[in-house]
């Protein structure tokens, strides 16, 4: 039963995450990462999240690049790149069960951060951008979760949604490409990689359709519920296999 259930959940997570990111600008890794690490393990699952996130960010950026703010992107991305080596060191030092717990905990914590980000509003100005960018780079390479800290910064700044979506895609595209280059491609077969890519494309198309037809608040609530479920499941699996 588990051999069928987990891949099905992972596929649903990938497609739902892709749809959410196209509709709202973020959400793919939050939804997909916990389920992919459940199926593939922490290292392979996060590596696949990085690769698929890069593909998805490129797709969304093609639709939104005119709103990209280059200066804001630089203030986020340079610190993010500087934090990647620290994340690589953590991945190399922790055993697989602890990495599962780390990914799940970061997923749950990141979702809570996004939820209270507008109220907390702590990452203002350039110092806030540098902090958010560095944490985004570290969390992206370790857990595939580069978006939440950028979201908290955007909420703290009252960032225009259209410009945020475009700039976040560009930042995450660079960070994910560097993460893939640093860790290598995920060690999975061509068939599995092709299936995951098809699900990302299908999810992006679904998100394009949902954008003008479904209340963004409903999409956000779905993302929160699925991400929390996946994060808690990854933590539980890590604890049980410790």
UniProtKB/TrEMBL annotation:
The keyword Phosphoprotein does not apply. This is Probable membrane transporter protein. It is a multi-pass membrane protein. It is found in: Cell membrane. Pfam families: TauE. The chain crosses the membrane at residues 28-61, 73-92, 98-117, 129-155, 193-210, 222-240. Keywords: Cell membrane, Membrane, Transmembrane, Transmembrane helix, Transport. Belongs to the 4-toluene sulfonate uptake permease (TSUP) (TC 2.A.102) family. It comes from Streptomyces gossypii. It comes from the Bacteria.
């Amino acid at each position: 039963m588990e051999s069928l259930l987990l891949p099905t959940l992972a596929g649903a997570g990938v497609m739902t995450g892709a749809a959410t990111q196209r509709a709202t600008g973020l959400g793919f890794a939050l939804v997909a990462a916990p389920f992919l690490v459940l199926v593939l393990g922490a290292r392979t699952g996060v590596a696949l999240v990085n690769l698929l996130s890069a593909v998805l960010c490129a797709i969304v950026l093609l639709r939104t690049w005119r709103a990209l703010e280059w200066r804001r992107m630089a203030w986020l991305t340079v610190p993010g790149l500087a934090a990647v080596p620290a994340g690589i060191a953590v991945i190399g030092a922790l055993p697989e069960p602890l990495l599962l717990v780390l990914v799940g905990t970061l997923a749950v914590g990141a979702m809570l951060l996004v939820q209270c980000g507008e109220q907390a509003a702590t990452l203002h100005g350039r110092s806030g951008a540098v902090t958010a960018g560095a944490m985004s780079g570290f969390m992206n390479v370790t857990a595939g979760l580069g978006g939440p800290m950028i979201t908290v910064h955007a909420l703290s700044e009252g960032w225009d949604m259209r410009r945020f979506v475009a700039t976040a895609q560009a930042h995450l595209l660079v960070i994910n490409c560097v993460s893939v280059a640093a860790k290598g491609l995920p060690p999975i077969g061509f068939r599995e990689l092709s299936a995951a890519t098809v699900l990302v494309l299908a999810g992006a198309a679904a998100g394009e359709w949902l954008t003008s037809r479904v209340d963004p608040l409903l999409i956000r609530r779905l993302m929160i519920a699925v991400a929390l479920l996946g994060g808690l499941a990854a933590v539980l699996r890590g604890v049980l296999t410790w």
